[in-house]
Amino acid sequence: MKTLRVTAAASACLLLFAGGITACAPPEKDSGGEQTSSGVKAGEATSAKDFGGLQGLVDAAKKEGELNVIALPPDWANYGAIIKAFGDEYGIKVNSAQPDAASQDEINAANQQKGKSTAPDVFDLGQSVALANTDAFAPYQVETFGDVSENFKDPGGKWVNDYGGYMSIGYDSAKVPAIAGVDDLLKPEFKGKVALNGDPTQAGAAFSGVMMASISQGGSPDDIAPGVEFFRKLKAAGNFLPVDPTPATIESGQTPVVIDWDYLNVAETKKLPSWKVVVPPNAAVAGYYYQAINADAPHPAAARLWQEFLFSDKGQNLYLQGGARPVRADTMVIKGTIDRAAYAVLPPVDGAATFVSVEQNQAATKYLEANWAKAVG
């Protein structure tokens, strides 16, 4: 059972989520925070200007002293290094809860702990879950907000895409034959070996994995049904492995084939020399994750400083060093602030990229909710 970390003030308490029971709950927290120099509370601040500038935000965040993040695995997009760099730079303790949780788990935790000091301050979400929960986000525009294309942000700053990549197939070349495309996964040599990162009704990576399969089978962002049908065939062939892959399952050999973002699969090549990665040439599905602030964040100034850090040149280059494609990459290339060495080793992509729009995502999510469990159950 996964439990959320608690702050020092509640160190004697344990959260018991089984059956929805809470024992010795953490203290309630005023999510509005202290009043800023502009007269609004920290939880209502929409930019660093409300704190009198970035230094004022830094001072307010340091006074809070802590930041609660959730669902950020250390090996995912270099989050281990990002969390350390943020803590080192500002002297703020980062409480990282449920690192292997899915996007929906983040929202569930925020709802379950609303008003508590252990509630998540920030979210890092897949598209489906993010767009279904925008009422839970606080609008905020970082100093580099103007560098982000209009297609990758909410106009008011409720959410902003932070990093992305391409859906890929990673495989252990010492255990399975070479993979050139999605159709290869139906071959008998892959019996019990093909894992998908999560449930596509809840996890952004899994959603895009099914979309990749759909594109490869003649579908489109408007029609994810061929992707669901592909996984039905994969299940019927005995090739689908219902295990959520992690670095540990990959390195132990439990999941020799993994459908996941290219930056996650590429990270494994550094640990497992036989691990290979392919972005299917006929199904290059691109996607970005959504960064947002919890409207009820217990540490509202620290939450906003975290956003500033992630979208700064330093934060964006840290994503890049983890193999992810930072949302500000184009601007940083022009300005000369991109980490060129890290940028040069991104996996090649053959063919046009497929992006899923907000409307297409919503329609595809409804289809998945109605049909996924029947296909692979």
UniProtKB/TrEMBL annotation:
The keyword Signal applies. The keyword Signal applies. Keywords: Signal. Residues 1-25 form the signal peptide. GO terms for biological process: thiamine transport. SUPFAM superfamilies: Periplasmic binding protein-like II. GO terms for molecular function: thiamine binding; thiamine pyrophosphate binding. One of its GO terms (cellular component) is outer membrane-bounded periplasmic space. Transmembrane segments: none annotated. This is ABC transporter substrate-binding protein. It comes from Mycolicibacterium grossiae.
